[in-house]
Specification:
It is a single chain. The protein has a single domain, classed as Rossmann fold, CATH 3.40.50.850. It is an alpha/beta fold. The chain starts with 17 loop residues before the first strand and ends in a 7-residue tail after the last strand. The radius of gyration is 15 Å and the shape is globular. Helix 4 packs parallel to helix 5.
């Protein structure tokens, strides 16, 4: 994984108001690559919980952006109920949204692609997002790129992002830091 002492890892600087974005953690893990993903999710779950707790305690918006798995007639409570009844509810329950969390449905990899997220962030005056969730080399990477091109500051909570392939995840973290100026921070050090 990307070294803690690499440039861009946790650089402090003036940041606009922030939000924690929890990406695709409401998951039933009933997809072809679930066997690759589940072990990594188990490993990062405590750090995701730490990031969510820190954001909530700090009064920072927590926004869940999640695939709807083709359930276009459902809302987030139905999606949550479905995954909590699945075989991997133990990976969802500790990081489930609370009543104050905001929720945005996405259909593709990026949290911004044809979603109202950009509008929501602007309405809330948020110019910095911290990303946690899954998967580092897919949805996290594409979302960080889309945030970057929208001039939104990005932090990736590097110990709170799950992956399918460790080598690709490491390369994705490096790309986000080097090419997009993303900060890489641990959940315990997360600051908004």
């Amino acid at each position: 994984m990307v070294s803690e002492d690499m440039p861009g890892s946790g650089d402090a600087g003036e940041r606009p108001p922030g939000a924690l974005i929890v990406v695709d953690m409401l998951n039933d893990y009933q997809h072809p690559d679930a066997d690759l993903l589940v072990p990594s999710v188990r490993e990062v779950l405590p750090a995701v919980r730490t990031a969510i707790d820190a954001a909530r305690e700090g009064g920072v918006e927590v926004i869940y952006v999640n695939d709807n798995f083709g359930r276009w007639r459902s809302h987030h409570d139905e999606l949550l109920d479905t995954v909590l009844k699945g075989p991997h509810a133990d990976l969802v329950e500790p990081v489930a949204p609370d009543d104050d969390s905001l929720f945005v449905v996405k259909a593709r990899h990026s949290i911004f692609y044809e979603t109202p997220l950009e509008y929501l962030l602007r309405q809330l005056g948020i110019g910095h997002i911290a990303l946690c969730g899954q998967a580092t080399e897919q949805c996290i990477l594409y979302s960080a790129l889309d945030a970057h091109i929208r001039h939104i500051d990005v932090t990736v909570v590097r110990d709170a992002v799950a992956h399918l392939h460790a080598d690709l995840a490491d390369a994705a973290l490096r790309m986000m830091r080097e090419n997009m100026g993303a900060r890489l921070e641990k959940a315990a050090d997360l600051a908004f």
